[in-house]
Amino acid sequence: MEGTTPALPRRGIGFHAAVAVNVVLFAGVAGFLAFDAARETRQREREKLAALDEEAMTLHQAVAHLAHHSPDEIQAFVDGVCGRMTDAASPGHHIVAEAGGRAYQARAHGRDSDDTARAVRAAARAPDRRGGLQGEAVVVGTHTEGGVRVFVAERLDTLRREVRAQVALRAAGVLAFGLVLAAAVNLTVYRLVTRPLRRLVRTLGAIRAGELGAQAGAYNSRELAVLAAAVNDMSRALAADGARRRAAIAHARRVQENLLPKPGRAVPGVTIAAVHRPAEGVAGDYYDAVPLADGSVLVCVADVVGHGVPAAMVAAVLKVLVLDAADRDPDPGRVVRRVNARLTALGIPDGFASLLVARWCPEQRTVWYASAGHEPGLLSVGSAPPVPLDATGILLGVVDDGEWESHAVPAGPGATLVLPTDGVTEAMDADGVQFGRSRLREVVAAVGGADPERVVGAVDAAVRTHLAGRPPDDDYTLVAVRFLTRASFGRS
Length: 492
Hints:
Blueprint: H1 13-66, H2 71-84, E1 94-99, E2 102-105, H3 114-125, E3 130-133, E4 136-145, E5 148-155, H4 157-208, H5 222-259, E6 270-277, E7 285-291, E8 297-304, H6 309-328, H7 332-346, E9 353-361, E10 366-372, E11 377-380, E12 387-389, E13 407-410, E14 416-420, H8 422-425, H9 437-447, H10 452-467, E15 476-483
Antiparallel strand pairs: 1-2, 1-5, 3-4, 4-5, 6-15, 7-8, 8-9, 9-10, 10-13, 11-12, 11-14, 14-15
Helix pairs in contact: 1-4, 4-5, 5-6, 6-7, 9-10
């Protein structure tokens, strides 16, 4: 079963590295800006409080001097000072003076009231000298001396807006620098991480695609250099292993070719044509045609379960076992039984195979056959529909004492025996539709009593058309044997 490729993440390591670096970078920038804004606000508020204290001290001298005169003069002084300060220049500015047991508030801005006086005094007593006045945050400067107290309050919202504007301007510069720095970091990550890794991935992709021996280039970083060296070693090892495997398969193919009937070799009494296509260099399919001493001809075809070198080895064993069994007794049923007994005695793992053995006797104008679970053969006699040679027993290698009977079918000179493996009938097109046994019978019936080359060519062309360029999934063997006259005695 082929392995399935897991779904790959959409983003590469370079992207994740860049995101991680950028997140840290911009988090640092944001943290710095927040800290800078808080620091600047505290600094400006301390400066404002110091200025208000200084103003309260200055006013205190005047109020203390006027306390020796009439209260109206103190009130007029406070109103005059506050009146000269507009809300635009000093927003929320308010003066409260206490002298001679009386409180004086500036009336210029309409904020004088007992509640205002209490709020200003409460803010002056606070540790940070901040409080609320008419819903606004204020800071209060104060000076007390000689029984006279002066409070100067001012709103903080305008001050804070000014700080935010300054911080925003500074933030724009920092962010611009941060963007330049981020671009430099991203470029560095791309050059040091993303691009080298992509090169390495391309090398691995080439190896996966079959370009064994492909080598990764040089890398500057230690980790990537070590990884590239490991990939290079693996690629060279795979190339060497592939070369050994190809050499082994080529040798196995040459051995297997020697096991099959030689093209053009004469077999007395019959003419043979075949197509033999391994799925993996060598096949588990095997066929043969053997003249027997009594003038009959033994024809067989086998299909070992699986394919590749292991199946080809079992096929070679089958050839030896079939020849040995036919020398002892040429009856197809007894040949199959003897082959099965010897095969199971060998104890080959997964050594299962189908086998069809047919013996044609020209004197009796009959074909005897036995089939161990093999794909049905077809016997074409004249213009009559092809006769199927169905299985007469189970596969080889399943049980050691199986029984296979020989069946007889009339067949004189001119009859043609067509023996496929299941790689022919089970050949599937792109939609998963098999070529099928009925289609095979139709093609064989259409060519009738033609010579074996034409029969094999017609069937092979029909199967290749069905496959539409797709390679067969299984070993593919088709044999056609035409019976001529009485075979000469002896083997050639």
